[in-house]
Amino acid sequence: MVLDYVEELEGCHVWGNFIQRVSFDSSEANQKMISVNPSGFACSYNESALHNLSHDHGGKKEFSANRSRRGRFYNVLSCLHFSDPIQTFWTFTIKDLQTNFEASDGFYSGQFQKLLEGLTLRFKRGKANGLKNFVWVSEAQERGNIHFHLVTSTKFLSVQFVQDYWNKLVNQDSKNSVDVEFIKENSIRNISGYFAKYMSKSHSVDFEGKGLKGRVIFSKSFGYSRNFKIFENFKIHRNQLLLEFPELENTKVTKKISEEISIDYYFLNSEKVIEFLKIKEKEEREAKEREAKAREAFGFI
């Protein structure tokens, strides 16, 4: 499957500083444009060739969905870290053995959202143990129970307070339902490594995993707070990108998926990518303002 090839490279390199270009033939026209996003992960592809992918090679739906979910996750994680450096990595678990996953996943996911909403409200009201900004994912344990992982840039949170709050929401008495680790690494590549292993394909109802850890999760796969800037991806000509990243071609790694499809990866500095995106966003905003003024001057508005 095409996903197997993508997963293989993502498992080694997706966290952090790389750009992906997907090309479906050798013509120069299809290899000029590269789509850049905050995590350094980007791709461009020939839409007609993607439509022709057979089910045995992943199919368009599976290929696009996997790229979209993972790509969005790493974008958000990168934007959070460069907005306000990530400090801690949290894990929230369920004590009792979970049954009827399709029904109970939704319940526990809903209670986790209530926890986040409550802690966020405390921050807005200036109370202790308030949560400012964060990114989270849900996943299954070996025994099948859903659990949640969260990273945040909030520096001061009482583990005991958060655990008591969580236990009350899920109606359990547990002394180890919440675990926290301090993240010492400053690089987004290393920080993303904390989360990478939790981003599986098990949120698709069509996924068939091995054992309960690989089971389908019947709830939202990840989420984040809305109080930090999210930079969207944009397409740029390869030659323009080379002006900003002259090392581009020296870092290229190519992986063939089929006779018609190959993927080019470029490893770049994430901080530089973010700064580059800020500049491009400013240029686009100023261009739109100039266009609006010109249209108004000529009476088009």
Question: What is the fold's blueprint, element by element?
Answer:
Layout: H1 2-13, E1 18-23, E2 33-36, H2 47-51, H3 59-83, E3 88-92, H4 101-124, E4 134-140, E5 146-152, H5 159-169, E6 178-182, H6 188-196, E7 222-224, E8 234-237, H7 238-244, E9 253-256, E10 262-267, H8 270-297
Antiparallel strand pairs: 1-10, 2-8, 3-5, 3-6, 4-5, 4-7, 9-10
Classify the fold: give the CATH topology of the largest domain: Alpha-Beta Plaits
**Helix amount:** 40-55%
Low-confidence stretches: 1-30, 60-66
> What is the CA–CA distance across the termini?
51 Å
Given the C-alpha coordinates, what overall shape results?
globular
Strand content: 15-25%
Short note summarizing the structure:
40% of the residues lie in helices and 17% in strands.
Q: Characteristics of this structure?
A:
301 residues; alpha+beta; Alpha-Beta Plaits; 2 domains; 5-stranded antiparallel beta sheet; 8 helices; 10 strands; 40% helix; globular; disordered N terminus
